[in-house]
Amino acid sequence: MKNFGYTVIKQRTIDYDQFDGRLLNEVLEMEPSFKVCLSCGGCTATCSANDLVSFNVRRMNLLLRRGETVELESEIKKCMLCGKCMLVCPRGINLRNVIMLIKKSILKYKPVNS
Amino acid sequence: MDFPPSFILPFTIGLLFISVFLVIIIGIWISGLSRIDKSRIIHNIFTRKSLLAIRETFMESLLHRKIFRKNPVLGYMHMSLAFGWFLLIVVGHIDAVNHYQTFSVPAYKAIFMRYFVTETATTISGKILAASMDLLLLFVLSGVMLAYFKRLNSRIFGMRKTTKLKMGDRIALSALWLIFPLRFMAESVSAGIHHNGSIISQPTGQLLASTLPVQLLEMPLWWAYSGALGMFFLALPVSRYMHIPVEVVMIFLRKYGIRVQKRIDGYSRIQVYSCSRCGICLDSCQMTHAAIKDTQSVYVLKHIRNKNLTDEKLFNCLLCGRCQPDCPVGLELNNLRMTQRIESTKEYNSSYEYLKNGPIVVSPQTEVIYFAGCMTHLTPAIIKSMKEIFAVAGVKFWFMDEEKTACCGRPLMQVGQYEAAKKLIEHNRERILASGAKKLVVSCPICYKVFNEDYALPGITVQHHSEYLLQLMADKRLPVNKMPLRVVYHDPCELGRGSGIYHQPRLLLDEYAEVIPIKNEKEAAYCCGGSLANIKIQMNERNQIRDNAMEEYLGYQPDVLATACPLCKKTFAKSRNLPVHDIAEIVYMAIRQKNAERSGKTKTMKELKIELWGS
Question: Which pTM value belongs to this model?
């Protein structure tokens, strides 16, 4: 059969009964400024790491809020902590602390079977 | 042989305890040094360095020269207590040796000599020694008096703030405050009973003997004096006064060339214990401008000692280094904090695998590399100015981080991620070396520091653009044009205190504008508040720190605030009180102005700025 490049989309259902909000809660508690993120994407546009590899700070926010810890862990490692995102953020969010908090806490909350 | 009186027990027990304790703990710390550091001790111990260390111990630990420079009254207080007490011990022993006519005088016989001596000194040497002991005690008592007043009002001593005490400190402090008044009382009472004493203890002794039942008071007073001494020795290990013995060891090790490494070891512990918690670092800390009052160096060192340092406190510091020049003990405050940051984050250093197979711009062959830095990409006027200056000077260069370039690694290092930073450093280093360049010009002091210190770049001179532009100007490759601009120059932390570059930017600016000298400059320069080293501070707190610095600058009524760091520029520019320009931008405007004058026109500052910001 001819391959047109289309595939069946992988199952991406998130079961909110299984939702693990511990990481999210910890990050928001330790860095409350992250609550006011309006997902404008300025951080991603200016990101030094994003210039080299696909790395999306805004997507990181989404993964965190959805509790997708496994994907988040591989994403977060790409950040070089240069701080440009923090300077362009219109809400003055302390993004470098958010990154460091996730990096530090993710080991605690990572699902065991991953 | 007659037994000594029982009141010497508390003192003797205390002295024995503290001697054994110190030998053990300092032994553990020194054995915890690296092999190289141990060999440094062995190689230097019998050299002039030991004499220099003795001199420094005398000047700093006893005379407190550095505190004198900060405030004479505060200096006098510390000197009278430290040097006075030291002399009391030394002269007291000489007095005892002179009296008993033997060198083997037990410590208690010297310390409590006035109890044992019932006759009046008859020899001239005895009289002089007794009189000097009285005067020395008076000298120490004056210091104790000042210490009482300081607790009530620290402002008299030029200190706006003073440190909070914990339990061990309170016990030791109370004991210290009691030792000398009790000694004075006990000696006076004994002098009153035996009708001896010297210039001060004789009249007070007679006065006490005529008004109080001195026979009854004698023993309790000597007990209390001995008890206070014993209490002080017992509380020493859990109090800040541990700095007294440890500081001396630290001065010797420092003279032997031992420094704080990027890890916690014996020497970093010795430095932590050498902190006297005087609180002088609190005054220079700008975090207090944002009402953050519990993360300063003195508290962090205290928490390291008590093993209860939280990330919230550890990372809530700009690492601007303003506290370091003020520290009377000369501790490496920033490096000590760094050791803790490295320890705290060591488990999650990234490996940046993507750098190996990412889209990389191939290094062209070039003489000069220009590395703007991540921050400079947010201040495009600096890049534009640098490009123009390179063109005017006729320099061919490779703009290394124009696109697809990794960060220099310094921001990672500042939060303790040294292992992760190494990956970025290796990557960038390969690219730099592949170009065969001789010179690396950097616009960002944060990058400059790491390129200078942590990249091994043989044959390549790393220059901040302030140094580079100064050199171009000296080589007459840049036109000079002094503009009628009053400029305040803000020293960036990483360039000034961090890399010791204070003069080059000023020399450069002098040729293009009028630089106004200000109070807090060079070593005492303010931080802009934007530092990447602090990951805990909130934006509004950063703004308060910035506004406080800005207020001082505005007092000099400058036309422009000049700086040499894109992050400082970005931080100050947000306050909108004063035009903020990087030195490269000022050079750019001066060149443009001169070009316009040649063609018979003059340009206003506004027109020049529009040119700078326009595409």
Answer: 0.90
